Every structure is written in structure tokens, then in C-alpha cells.
Amino acid sequence: MELTYLQNNKEKYIHVFSCCIPVKGYERGAIYDLQREEIELVPNTMIDFLDYIKNKKLSAVLEEFESDKIAKQYLGFLEKNEFVFYSNTVFFPELEEKSINEDTSTIQFMTIMLSDFISEHLDTIIRSITALGVKRLHFHINDENCMGKMHHILDVLVHSRVTNVSFSIPHQKINKKLYSNNRLKTLYLFNAPKEKIESNNEVTTISIKINDAGMFLPKFSINTVDINSSAYNIARNYNLSLYKTVFVDELGSIKFNINDQQSYGNITDSLEEIKNKTIRDLSGIWNIKKEDIAPCNICEFRLCCTAVYIPFKTDNGYAVNCNYNPYQAELN
């Protein structure tokens, strides 16, 4: 059947689906399937092969690689995973590097460490969150009995622009009324006796053994990979890990992550000061692309990684101290 399929398409041109993005790394490559939101790790030689055969006639490729078993295996893999297709059309346009539908929010994602200070200024903070256009909001609560606090936060968000709310709280029994709130999407229960994932309505509850001290430390894992068209668009034009993403500590200081020693302002500052000073300072880091950061620039995950590492200046540009080693394709 496979032979018949190839014979029927011999005079057609080979094209890569525009939603399938080949990315070459140092040790290995990856193909991002933006439509299925999946990533396939492959040898760099397959990325080279894919780039070489693109827009060529299938007959010419089959003739050139007639005796090459590896090339035939690569072609079969690309067909099977629907990364390529055949067409009589010579050319198909690729994805635009910059989307015309780019999100207009000043801040998209905010993490807030709940404290007495944050609670005292919650109304002011929510007004700022709404004005900044925050869409995804995470609250960390270190309280063994916090159901009331969570209900209150969800209540004050009722007229906000936030569409995705998540909480991280100590492992405890959940008030089922929370599951009826349309904004609530995820609950992280830390210090859990065992790890598990449950679903209630549209709320995902994730129980994790890790304690709260380690929850927000920047660390790469497959869970920090974000594969979709929006993320790819941001990654091509900005730093996906940091773009429009902020961390607010217990005193209201606006930072990039929990380790950040620099404060870019306070969440209780006037909206004018946040927009004119804080956002200006943050955007300087947002615009440092992974291609300009070592070792991100040779990493196969550079266009989908959301691990919040802050780049620091070096003699040769910028760098981060990441726990993933792209030279060996290993986690440290």
C-alpha cells in the first residue's frame, strides 16, 4: 500500500505543513506541531533532510535517495506523522513571523504571592490587573484553610478581564463550590502525600509532593514547553519565557521570578506609573530573544520554552544558567 501511495504521488511536490515547524538544536532537533500542540524530538539529520526535500518533486527525491535506507525511513516517518504532504502546487506560503492578531494586553500572565499586604490592597490590585488586561492569573496561598480566601478572590474578579485563574495551596479538602466558577481552571495542591491529577467540571486538580519553597524556582522540564501558534508567534518575536509575564511577591514588588533581586515597581503603584515606568523597564528584557541568549540559541526547545530564566549580560551577549544542557540533550 505504501508503494502504491508513493507511485500515485511521484509527480507531485513535497511540502511541509505550515503548522509543523522544524527546529534544529545542537545535539538533536525537534518538529513543533502547532495544530496538535505536540513536539516530536528527531535527529538533526532529519531536519536537514526535511529542509532539503521541501518543494522538490517526490520522484526526484526517490531517485536521488534510491539506495539510502535512512532517507527512506525519514520520508516514511514524516509521512506517517503528517509533517509533509504532496501537491501539484509548486509553492505554499509559510506562517507569518508576526501575527496581526497579537494580544493587546499590557500584561498577559501574573503570579501573586498572597500575603496580608496583598489582601489589604486587593481591590486596588484587581483594578490594576483589569486595566493591564491580565488574562491568566495565579495566586499562591500558604494557608492550610484557605477556601474562604479563594472564594473571595474569585468574587472580586467577577468584573475583570481575567479568563484563567489558578491557585497553588497546601494539600487539603476542596470546597466543591469552587468547581462551578468558570474562571477557575487549575488547582495545585503542594505537600501532597502522592502525585495525581483529577478533573472536576472544567477544573484540573494537580496534587504534587513538592513543597511551596520549590514551586516557583525556574526549572526546565517538558511541562514548561508550550506548543501552539500563539506561543510560537511570541517566541519568534520576543522572549516567550518572560514576555508579558510577571511575578508579584508578598510585598507587592513586581519581578520576573521569585529569585529576581530587582524590583520593577509595585503592584499598588498608580496605573500611570506601572504603564510608563514598570512596563518600559520590563519590555527591555522581553525583547531579548532566545537566539541572543546562550545556551538557548542552540537549544531545540528555544521557540517553545517557558522556563522563567532571566538573561544576564556577558562579554558575548546574554546567557542563562539553565538545568537543561542542549549540548548533551540532558537535564542537570
Q: What do these coordinates show?
A:
The chain has 3 domains: 2-87, Outer Surface Protein A, domain 3; 109-286, no CATH class; 290-331, no CATH class. The protein is 26% helix and 23% strand. The chain contains 9 helices and 18 strands. It has helices at 2-8, 44-53, 58-64, 69-80, 116-120, 122-132, 147-156, 229-237, 271-286, and strands at residues 13-16, 20-24, 29-33, 38-42, 84-87, 109-113, 136-140, 164-170, 184-190, 196-200, 203-207, 245-248, 254-255, 293-294, 312-314, 317-319, 324-325, 330-331. The strands form 5 sheets. The protein has an 8-stranded mixed beta sheet with strand order 10-11-9-8-7-6-12-13, with no helix packed on it. It has a 3-stranded antiparallel beta sheet with strand order 2-3-4, covered by helices on one side. The radius of gyration is 23 Å and the shape is elongated. The two termini are 45 Å apart. The model has no long low-confidence stretch (mean pLDDT 93).
In short:
The chain has 332 residues and is an alpha/beta fold.
Lateral arrangement of strands in the main beta sheet: 10-11-9-8-7-6-12-13
| Number of structural domains | 3
Q: What is the overall number of helices?
A: 9
Q: Decide which structural class fits the backbone.
A: alpha/beta
Largest sheet: 8 strands, mixed
Low-confidence stretches: none
Instruction: Please count the beta strands (DSSP E, at least 2 residues each).
Output: 18
Determine the mean pLDDT: 93
Q: What portion of residues is helical?
A: 25-40%
